Amino acid sequence: MKNKLLAATLAVVGLFSAQAVAAETCGGYYRVKSGDSLSLIADRLYKDVGTWSTIHSQNIDAIGPKPNAIRVGMKLRMPCINGLPTGLEGGTKAASAAPVAARPVKVTPGNASVRQKINLLTGDDYAPFTSKASHNGGLITDVMTAVMTSAAPQEGFAIHWVNDWGSHFDPLLSNALLDVGFPWYRPDCDTMPDSYRCVNFLFSDSMFETLMLLFVDKTRPFTFEDDADILGKTLCRPNGYLTFDLDGSGRRWLADNKITLKSPHTVKDCFDMVAKGEADAVAINEFTGRSVMKEHDLADQFNVLPQPLSVLGIHAVVHKSHPRAKDLMALVSKGLQTVREDGTYQRIIEDHLSRIWAEF
Predict the structure, then answer these.
(1) Could you tell me the pTM of the whole model?
(2) What is the extent of the structural domain holding 199?
(3) What are the tens digits of pLDDT across the range 100-109?
(4) DSSP labels, 19-65
(5) In terms of domains, do 167 and 254 share one?
(6) Parallel, antiparallel, or unpaired: how do β-strands 157-161 and 118-122 relate?
(7) Which residue numbers in the chain have pLDDT < 70?
(8) Beta partners for residue 313, in sequence order
(9) What's the number of domains the chain is made of?
(10) pLDDT tens digits, residue range 179-207?
(11) Exposure pattern of 86-99 as b/e (b: 16+ CB <10 Å)?
């Protein structure tokens, strides 16, 4: 009899435990408390202090470019990353937040029928944003697919992978050989109106905000709280990477020789230059920098400074000379607005962020 009662009790406990697990949520909203910082919130909610940058980028409209600008009572969106955080207001059911198995892109041979479709252009080897080997082609490819599916153009759409990134702006987009390109950063066109991208392209609304961070040697740290702290420094960013954030917003760091920029072949070369004292910091987007640190086991040697060097949105672009330029941008904008409103966008972002942070 006792054994039956014990079994029944365990069954009831198990039932309630199962119900509690089923009811548990992931992600949601957090209200900033006295004494909070993004690092403390990240450590408490995600058990990983490094995720402060994701909290920042996901709430950039509320916080602004300085991560220490949070205020008591501010409501911040906490994305669901690897099942955390749990129990917050506005979260999603943990079971539905679990990432599905990764699905790399399978590119099928094309045919002449695609000429009648809206043809999107991207390239490989730009993980986590675009990569054939990544889940659904990477974060931005996944977003763009959802955007176009939601917009549902009558003629349909197709995504083309051209790995020669240098050909994307010219001739492929400039000659309307393909219609819409992604993922591209937008310069500060207010202060850099003569920039090639500003002169020649229309930009969609931002599909994701990327933080450009400084990676510094722990034995030679320096403080970066505002632009004055960078003057006279030597930064490293590989050859071929964008540099307009170093001159935009009135900085003119390169144009007026206010800093020195080293541009070796690879990101790893930049980390080596900083380690040797040949540069003060690697200036690169957070995901690329963290990936290289992970790959080469540099976490014990380098720190990631909490103040972003810049915050850059990632966009789709259409050449202004395209005969349907405005209509295409309106179509993308409509689709992006819809997937943001119906929750599809946030699900995609959280799915990819979980995969990205699991690698770090």
Answers:
(1) 0.87
(2) 112-208+314-359
(3) 778 888 887 7
(4) HHHHH-EE-EEEE--TT--HHHHHHHHHS-GGGHHHHHHHTHHHH-S
(5) no
(6) parallel
(7) 1-23, 94-99
(8) 209
(9) 3
(10) 999 999 999 999 999 999 999 999 999 99
(11) eebeebbebeebeb
